[in-house]
Amino acid sequence: MNLAAEYFYGFVSLLYPRVCNACRRALIREEECLCSWCRFELPQTNLHLYRENAMSRTFWGRVDIETATSLYYFQKGGKVQSLIHQFKYKGKTDIGNYLGKVLGRQLCNQPLWEPIDAIVPVPLHRKKQHLRGYNQSEIFGQGISKEFRRPLLTGNLVRITKTDTQTRKSRFNRWTNVETVFHVNNPEAYRGRNILLIDDVITTGSTLESCIRLLKEIPGTRVWVATIAMAI
């Protein structure tokens, strides 16, 4: 970068300081979204390295998946919760895209994840997406797609019923709340595909389970699962 560009960058940084979305420290030029300290301090799971793990066991006896992973562990009041809150409710879509790129880099060249040929985000109901302005799972998927080099398929798996929030529901009520709310418009588009199904957070897994059941009804479909965080 030449001297003029250096001065311009410094001037812009004074007017619009770039800060870490987790701790609010100033970012240096090479950093994106998170400072180096937070990037390494956040509780990464490394579950992508193991076929059988704490997240994949969530689905045992419920639905058949290849394996599952989350980027981070989710703790109430922690930095991961703050990041996800900013991403979902404050319009900070750059956070979701960045975290998707982090996960996408993790999945590259990993034999467990190599067979995947498409990424499918858990959909929002159209009214909720209109109000929010975006589907957080889709933004997350854009980041994964960029680094993992797999296409992001949207608009085929859809949510046809608007559900209440899952936050304060029991495990049984979470399942009944989402049991019949999803639909696949064109099953042939998924036939024989190896799909990475993605969402923001997994708690009981009821929403993901409902989607997986639909996908597994399509002949030849195999399903992997990934989220930004899993509750512990």
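That was protein one. Protein two is written in the same sequence-then-structure order:
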Amino acid sequence: MGGSLAAALRGGSLASSIIGYDLDPAIAERGVALDLLDAAADSPAQAAGAADLVVLAAPVSAIPALLAGIADALAPAAIVTDLASTKADVVSAARRALGPAFARFVPAHPIAGGERSGLDGAEPDLFQGRTVVITPESETRAEAVDRVEQLWLSCGAKVVRMDAVRHDCLLASVSHLPHLLAFAVVAQIADQPDAQDKLSIAGPGFRDFTRIAASSPTLWRDIALANREAVSQQLRGLIALLQQAEQALVAGDGQRLHQMFELASRTRRRMNGDSDGR
């Protein structure tokens, strides 16, 4: 995600200089080699020290340490934002770490990406037409919000503002739970003796449904844990629905299955703008 943002900024000539840092120095050097970065820093503080805009593009679990690492190095007017998939925990961490600079922190979540990870998977047009949610707090300065909004608009994204807790509740349903489900379905097959036979004849439906199971396990473990209350609530609802489906199968109740399938089909068609999904 961070690499794609750097590529978009580079391609649109939207940044005069891009300095990057990674816990693994080889990754930052790879960013320089790919012309995504102008230079690799030795520490978060060094990367942030001369920046007017600092973007934290790291797993959720790494954000608190990064915030602590840059807090004392920030320029007086520097704006800080992030790309994390959960927001309430990041807001709390920023409030603790940044002190007065918290007013210049704009939490953001670009709803984009795919199963490919790493700088070699960076795509400059990744954010074109995608939604970016920002969750400013009451203390957040208007000029900081405007700057981050303009950043994403310049990358071709649409920007939506909402409360951080509301964001986490919504994303638990439409992002975090689906990822958990895709991982679970593939893991359930992988544990079976005839897993390779099954996977060898898997069609495009299975591949489309489970594509996101190829995503970073570490990243999605952290996201699920960071948003565990909301994800657990959605998971309980799904389990209850699956139990109803199992009961319908055992009873041979086609009507109950059809009602579930019809509701899902109609809702999904409506997402695609299909008039028959009314």
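Strands lie at 19-20, 39-40, 53-56, 79-82, 105-106, 108-111, 131-134, 158-161. Keep this in mind for the problem set.
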